[in-house]
Design brief:
heterodimer, A: 183 residues, outer membrane lipoprotein receptor (LolB), chain A, 44% strand, B: 819 residues, 32 helices, 13 strands
Amino acid sequence: MLAALAQPAPAQTAYFERRSSPLLAEPLLFAGTLSQPQPGELIKTVEGDTPERLRIADERVEVERAGQPTRRFSLKRAPELAALSASFEALLRGDLALLQKHYALDMQGSASAWNLRLAPLNRRLQKRVSSLSLYGQQLEWRCFDLDLIDGERSRMWLGEWAARAAAAADEPARDALCGAKPE
Amino acid sequence: MSVQGGGASPEAGGAAPRVRLGLIALWLVSLAAIAWLALAQLKLSGDLRLFMPQPRDAAQRLLMNQLGEGPGARLLLLALSGAEPDMLAERSRALRERLLASPEFVWAGNGEEGLEAIPAALADYRYLLSPGVVEGAFAAPALRAALQQRLQDLASPAGALAAPLIGSDPTLETLRVLEAWAPAAEPQRFDGVWFSPDQAQALLVVETAAPGFDPDGQQRALTALRAAHAQVLVDESDASPDASFEAPIARVGADRALVAKLEISGPGAFAERMAAQTRGEATRLGGFGIAGLLLLMALAYRSLSLPLLGALPLATGAVAGLASTAWLFGEVHGITLAFGFTLLGVAQDYPVHLFSHRRIGVPAAATARAIWPTLATGAFSSALAYLVFFFAGVDGLRQLAALTVAGLLAAALATRFLLPAVLGPQRRDLADARLPRALQLRLRHVHRQRWLAPVLGAAAGVALLLPGPWWQDDLAALTPVPPELLQRDRALRQALGAPDVRWLLALRADSREAALERSAALLPALDQLRSDGVLSGFELAARYLPSAALQRQRQQQLPEPQTLRAALAEAQSGLAFRSDAFEGFLAAVERARRLSPLRVEDLAGTALELRLAGLLARDGEQHLALIQLSGLEQPKALLEFTTRYPELDLIDLKTTANGLASAWRGQVLATMAAGAVLLSMLVWLSLRSARRAARVLLPVALASLLVLALLHLMALPLTLFHLISLVLAAGLGLDYALFFERSRGGFESDGGADQRRTLHALLLCAASTLLVFGLLSLSSIPVLQALGTTVALGVVCHFLMALLLAAAPASPSSPSTPA
């Protein structure tokens, strides 16, 4: 099934992200695009008041923010980015073996509404990232969750669901778009 | 009064065998008991500073301080190789984590800065230590800008490093402190960790908890280090059984397997290597030496028990030496022990004299009594010569003096009083041996050639005037570490920006506070030097610990709780943070306002404590702030720089060390001269005749001169160990000369048999000593080689000279009648 989900490069998808943190009174909301111009390169752009462009390639990260010099650092220093990048790459390639090497996989639900949970195996990753979850129906992704150890959570709605999530009235409605609720 | 025939009377044969065995057993047991008592009190020390003389000036005191506490002595440089850079980087990280958790290491750095560099207990001090705490840093506008940045950090995972801090440190002073603490000169990075320029090796630096002069502690650290590396490799292969290895091997080629390698460089690693090498060689050469010695004696006496019995006085001497050192000092240095036991080799001659001079039918006690005057003169004179080392001004030599004097005297006394009691009847008269007989026949001829002696002496004198290096001033030449390793260490040090062990700037002040302040004031000037290319990096305490005045100044900038709360509320308005998100921050600032400035003492128990200990020193009343330098390209330019600041000195540790070495030389030579005078007086007193004394002392003097000349001709610069060996050889030479002198003429009644016995004894002594020290001269360790060469040469020269000058044929008219 994963192979079927795979999308060859170049691929691009819009997303809508909600990021919550114990420090925040309300979650942050923003939208942008995720693209893979070529295999091994991932670009995440953030639109809005403070545009940002994040590029991950060859184990290095480049962050461009408006009005600030470009920051470059190693992917290994940002475990959650590493998780994001690795899982996305594996998913986009349909590479189950690669995913299994780095994560413990747990698939639940039915073909119409499935939930794939990835728990990191790498010790250093575990210190920061609690789990990743993918929600989808049939052969389509819907949502991508990133849970961090200190209580920060990020949920991305992908593709056409991004626009729907942006237009949703409130949080419960937004969450419902993902399909199966995490238990 | 010889007894014809072989009839052994009870008194001539000594006690019955069973009684003798009992006495031997008693002897051994008492030795064991004393040894046990002594060893219980004795601590084995590895402190190399025991062999350094007392420092005389400030620079030398600083050198001693740096040798021990200095971080240079505690740093180990590591290079990981044998895998692809990605894998090496991962290994570097894993290794660092393990080392930080180990008690043997104070600090491990590989280029990653981590929050753990600031101990939790000191976290609040960030507001006093951070250069970001300036006027207006906590006013509403600045706070707002910071909070907006933090919001972006939360939104983007690119702010991962800062994320845990945001609630308690929104202005990220912690990161600023870490930046200030980052080493000044850093190697290049790959993937966030330090790598060599060709990316073939991941580099790390670790600082051991054990000081540089503690070999055991350093050894523990090295063992822990290797164990941690092994564990990292095991974890690695567990985590990814096949995938991790197939890629690199596939890329390199199946026929060449990459082997994970950990290279350790630094003083601790060198010391370990030296110790292992010394131990290995000492055991091997010592083993051969002892075996050869026993064989030689067995052949000479045609007996197996005599060589073993001959070991008893030596063992007594060794135990007595240990006991006296334990009693006087409580500790003994490894080098002292090794040397002491070698020097006791002189004492091996005493039982040989007793054995060789025995006659059939004469009790051993009588022989002992007969040779005692000569033996005692030799023993006490040698002891006197070693006693003067007590005043040479070096602690290690004092221990050596105690050990050797006690040992020699005990061995001599044991030979006189204890050994005869355990000896059985003499079965063979050594006057019948072939070699002494042959030598005796030629004595007349030899005696006629005694003009050779002054000629050789003159030649030696001329040779001494020849140009050539006299003294080994470079302490580095004494190290047995191969030059390739030293070069590698230099290369690693340069790559890692680790401080040089050679150059140091020292700033004096009246108090530690003043020292910190003034050295902090130098920071801009030092930065300028660095950008000018004079040096590539520097390290000083003020970088880690601002002066109290500066800390208080920063404290002033911290606003009162209500003010801060109001400013924060204003800054937070409109931003998505919860209203109570920053309680941690408010509390931390409030605590920081009430902290007293951080002092060096407060850092006790943290990684910084030891780092600072090497950078702040005391010299009597004055306090010093040390500035360690790396990559000093232009010492002259730096010297000019220091002239601008009267309280700043540039210190060249290498020159200082060499200066120290040459300074004590004068003292040692003076004490040796005093020893020679005392020795001569003792010999004169004992022989009661100036003429006889001259016959004994002249060969010793000439032979010593000859040995010196030979060493000089061989272009061997002299070190302390050569000097000690010269004294040892002189002791041996004195022994030969005294016995040769004793055997002159006078014994015509027994056909010169006694002279033959003396010759037997002396030939055996010389041969055995030559064997042992000849083997030692084959060692690859400079110290052992110096000892072996000098003494081996000494044995030959002293024997020759004594034979020429002190010996004389048994009767002036005709040779002895053959038996």
